[in-house]
Amino acid sequence: MSSMLKLLATTLTLSSLLWADSSTLEVEKFLKDTYSANPNIKSINVKVTNVTEVKGFEDWSAYYVELDAMLKKEKRQVVQKMVWFSDGKIISKELFDLQSGQNLNEFVSVPFKDEFYKKENLIYGNANAKYKVAIFSDPLCPFCRTFVPEAIEYMKKEPNKFAIYYFHFPLDSLHPAAVELVKAAIALELKGRKDVLLDLYKVKVDPKEKSNEKILAEFNKVMKSDIKMFELMSKEVVAHLKSDLAIADALMVNGTPTIFFDGHIDKTKNKYKEAK
User: Fold this and answer.
1) What angle do CA 10, 70, 85 make, to 5 degrees?
2) Residues 97-114 pLDDT 10s
3) Alpha-carbon distance 20 to 78, whole Å?
4) Is the peptide bond between 257 and the residue preceding it cis, with omega within 30 degrees of 0?
5) Three-class SS of residue 242?
6) Looking at residue 22, what is its pLDDT?
7) Residue 212, Cβ neighbours under 10 Å: how many?
8) 3-state class of 104 per DSSP?
9) How far apart are CA 178 and CA 173, in angstroms?
């Protein structure tokens, strides 16, 4: 659990189910008043960024909330995103289906906006294909290294059926080497090189490697390329990665691989195989 979540958890001394009005303004006010009770929070802004229905539980709505707090002791700003549920009378951080025991957080996600389908992220297929698939991945994520290339190879064969959009999402806290690795991939793509992503998952480097020179050397070895260190810091490379990370943040993506199928998160990661 992050330090912010621990901090906020200590603030909520109320029960898990709290009575409140479900309108956006009321939810914002309720949460702001509640979190402001924490003596270590100097100031806090609460904003509901999205509201969606909870599939199968029509009386409930999911509120996507962004907390922007200034801490007193640490003298720093912390931004936290989370989901709250409300049926108009009750607001709760978590909801569980009594029959299945499943957490309803698994069934909600921020809608994938049309503006996120950027031309520079389309790696295979036609933009007007029947299905749009968005992949957020870290090339050094163990599961990604098997799943992502396999999924891409499967879908790229039918360009009129699948439009594949790829977003770099290096998990720098787990795989710091992935950051420089994806920068190198972006730099090579900007030079017009095709199929970079499929080869990217073949690069073998220690996820904890801190030597950028070693990381780039392994990348160039696999790609048979000659990307230079200074190219990783170009405005175009930095802007592309920043855009990918911003979209991931807006969608509250926090793990890899994360798949969106036709605008909705696919927890099974297999809907592309079931597509007619």
Assistant:
1) 50
2) 888 888 888 778 888 999
3) 25
4) yes
5) helix
6) 45
7) 16
8) helix
9) 10
- pLDDT tens for 5-21 read 444 544 443 333 444 44
Q: Exposure of 168 by Cβ count < 10 A (0-12 exposed, 13-18 middle, 19+ buried)?
A: buried
The residues near 202 (Cβ < 8 Å, ≥ 6 apart) are 222
CB 127 within 8 Å of CB 119: yes
Identify the burial level of 109 via C-beta atoms within 10 angstroms of its C-beta, where 0-12 means exposed, 13-18 middle and 19 or more buried: buried
Q: What is the pLDDT of residues 158-203, one digit of tens each?
A: 999 999 999 999 999 999 999 999 999 999 999 999 899 999 999 9
Q: Which two tokens stand for residue 158?
A: 């039918």
How far, in Å, CA of 235 to CA of 243, rounded?
Answer: 12
pLDDT at position 13 is 36
Inter-residue contact 168 to 186 (CB < 8 Å):
yes
From 33-47, 73-87, 258-272, the region with the lowest mean pLDDT? 73-87
| CA distance to 4, 57, 207, 262, per residue, from 129 (Å) | 41, 32, 35, 11
CA-to-CA distance for 129 and 163, rounded, in angstroms? 5
Q: What is the mean pLDDT of the chain?
A: 89
Given a contact cutoff of 8 angstroms between Cβ atoms, the answer to whether 98 and 111 are in contact is no
**Structural domains present in the chain:** 3-107 (no CATH), 114-274 (3.40.30.10)
Number of residues that make up the chain: 276
Burial label, 269 (beta-carbon count in 10 A; 0-12, 13-18, 19+)? middle
Task: Report pLDDT digits (tens) over 32-50.
Answer: 999 999 998 999 999 998 8
**Distance of alpha carbon 167 from alpha carbon 122, whole angstroms:** 9
* SS3 per-residue string spanning 14-34: CCCEEECCCCHHHHHHHHHHH
